[in-house]
Amino acid sequence: MRKELYDMRIRALALFFLMLALFFAIAPFQDYAVGTLRSLEGSSGEFMGKYIDREYVEQLTNWSFYMYSQWFGKNFGQLVPIIAIVLAFPLFSRESENGTLEFLLVRQSRLRVFMNKSFTGLLALVSIIVILSFLPILYSFVTGKEFVNEYVPQFMIFALVGGLLWYSVTLIFSVVFNDQVKPILASLGALVLTTVLGLLRPLRYLNTYRYILGVDIFSGGDMDILYTVSLLLVSGFLLFISYEIFNHKEI
């Protein structure tokens, strides 16, 4: 476990601080963003009416709506699958590429190696998502802004479940491939493919972005329990498949 945490620390910290920088590139600039959109209306009312929803711009003046839409509904939400993929892709493939997996298996069972690596990456993923989910609450408290935080747990659950799915998908590729390039390419390809196919109504369920970005929360609907449970079951199945592949892989 200590080795896995040591290997993970730079990647996890880099992701966290990049996301932290992204948050502070958004949060302090609410007035600037709204002012810019309004200035477009002033300079060209026709342009504003065609490309920008005026009602949406007015909603952005509400701090809670601004945070939920710009942080959870766009920037953070869009990057949740990427965070999961970056954390998972080298877990096994780097050991295979460097030829160090054999040394690990001399000292530990395959189950223990798999659990240590998988759990360490998962711990980093959950920690990053939980901290980033509560960031708007902390920032609002420090800056004295009124923030309706009752929807944060729902957005956080959606991000955690969606992140777990893409972590599980990437873990399979990391176990299968013996270099670090193929797992990340395969995972990103799967993300793009499912997102594009999900634009088709019959295959809408493939587009996990709709779930992770909290579209149902914005539309005022209830939390999609069936979809949440389905993603958890698929993630659990993929983790099991990853272990079975690793357990029978010739090393």
TrEMBL record:
The keyword Membrane applies. Pfam families: ABC2_membrane_2. One of its GO terms (cellular component) is plasma membrane. The chain crosses the membrane at residues 12-30, 76-93, 114-135, 155-177, 184-205, 225-246. One of its GO terms (molecular function) is ABC-type transporter activity. Keywords: Membrane, Transmembrane, Transmembrane helix. This is ABC transporter permease. It comes from Kosmotoga pacifica.
